[in-house]
Structure formats: C-alpha cells, structure tokens
Amino acid sequence: MDVQKARQEMVDQQLRQRGLSDERVLAVVSEVPRERFVPDSMQASAYDDRALPIQCGQTISQPYIVALMTTMLDVRDEHRVLEVGTGSGYQTMILARLARKVYTMERIAELQEEARRVLASLGVGNVVFIVGDGTLGHPPAAPYDRILVTAGAPEVPTALVDQLTEGGILVLPVGPTDRQTLTAVEKRGGRVIETPGIGVRFVKLIGTCGWHADEEAAM
Ligand code: SAH
To answer: Per DSSP, what are the bridge partners of residue 130?
Structure first.
C-alpha cells in the first residue's frame, strides 16, 4: 500500500468533503502515519473510513471523528492539553503536533506502554504518559487549556471541568453506552456552556466519574 497516497485520499474524501476545513488540523492528519498505530493484522484497513480494533478490546477511532474532535478542541501552539484515553496513541500524536505539551491518561497500563513505544519511535517528545483513572483528571499539572476525552462518559466528569483554565474547552462523548453526543464544554466567566454536536459511539469511559468496571463485565 502507498501509505502517503492513502493518507491524502483519506484527508480529501473523509475529512474535506465532509466539511472539515481547519488547515492546521488537516495538515497534521496528513502527516501522522496512522498505520503505525494499527495492529499488524489490520494494516490493509489502516486508512479505512471506520474505527478499528486495537489491543485489550479497545478501538482506534475513525479518522473523521479524530479530526472532528481535534477541530472542536481548537488547539493552539501554546496550549497544554489533557487527553483521557491514550488507546493506540494516534490521537495523542495529532494533539502533540498541535500543542505545546500533552498529558495523556490511560487506565490499561499495557496499552499505554505500547503507545509510548510507538510515539518514541516517531520522535514525539512533548507527551507525558500517565496510567490512571482519567475521570478524575490529573491535578498535579492542572489547569489545562484543553481536555479531550476519547471514551464515552455517562455524564460530564466534574473534575475535568474543574481542571480547565478560564476560556478552556473540554470535548467528550456523553450519553448511554450505545450512543453518545459529541459535546463541547466551555468555561467562560465562571459559567460552563455545553454545546451538543453529532451522535457517536465510543468504548466506555470506566472510572469513578464514568461507568463502573462491573457494568463492563455484565455486558
Ligand atoms: N484516542 C484513542 C482511542 C482509544 S479508545 C485512539 O485514537 O486510539 C478509549 C480508551 O480510553 C481505551 O484505551 C480505554 O482503555 C481508555 N479509558 C477508558 N476509561 C478510562 C479512564 N477512566 N481513564 C483513562 N483511560 C480510560
């Protein structure tokens, strides 16, 4: 497969033609090698228009959703970003190319170890890896200019809103396990403004302010 050609077609057909037009985001997506974050058995599908399975029953999100969430987040050079749900590390690398520093949290240590290895091999240096429950955020480095959650939450975790700067933006999928609404939460003048976006389907956010692990086992 000609990965550069596949990537360019992905950007044109899956992102631009669906109305995404933030040139900074599109430029970064056209540079990040998605195939490096996809398991060996799925290489031929790396640039397909869908989410793909990764280790531990998790997923790497559909390219359109990654680009849309990144656009909604409006990341700038000087920003410090908290990401909840490292997964494959694909979204992490896109954020790292746009922001000053990224703190990424993952509850499954072995998944984060693999992501750390891939990002190091690609020379990405401005990422801090944290194994833990991202529904509680990461208070030691708070507040964050931007927070992105890449797993579906039953409701907006209050700890994450608390850890946003004034003017900060949090983007996350909120709703029941079978369908969530991609939501932007903005903190402005002490007020919290929620703007609902499109319907999505993510794996569960599991933690203190998320779903419980036993609900996972029951399904
Ligand atoms: N952005 C990732 C998508 C990963 S899927 C990618 O592009 O590959 C969501 C991830 O969130 C899973 O790896 C899951 O283990 C993780 N997760 C779920 N609940 C979490 C929590 N409370 N804290 C941190 N990570 C969590």
So the answer is: 105
Tens digit of each residue's pLDDT, the chain (219 residues):
899 999 999 999 999 999 999 999 999 999 999 999 999 999 999 999 999 999 999 999 999 999 999 999 999 999 999 999 999 999 999 999 999 999 999 999 999 999 999 999 999 999 999 999 999 999 999 999 999 999 999 999 999 999 999 999 999 999 999 999 999 999 998 899 999 999 999 999 999 999 998 765 544
Q: Is 58 in the pocket of ligand 1 (CB under 6 A)?
A: yes
Residue ID of nearest Cα to ligand 1 atom 17: 85
Structure tokens at 13: 């057909």
- Report DSSP letters for 83-112, one per residue: EE--TTSHHHHHHHHHSSEEEEEES-HHHH
Q: Show the domain range for 14.
A: 3-218
Q: Tell me whether strands 101-106 and 127-131 are parallel, antiparallel or unpaired.
A: parallel
Whether residue 62 has its Cβ less than 6 Å from ligand 1: no
Q: Are 173 and 166 in contact (CB under 8 A)?
A: no
Ligand 1 pocket test target in 107, 163, 174 with most atoms within 8 Å of CB: 107
- Please tell me the total count of domains within the chain: 1
206 CB less than 6 Å from ligand 1? Answer: yes
Q: pTM of the full predicted structure?
A: 0.97
Whichever domain contains 29, its CATH number is 3.40.50.150
Q: Is the CB of 107 under 6 A from ligand 1?
A: yes
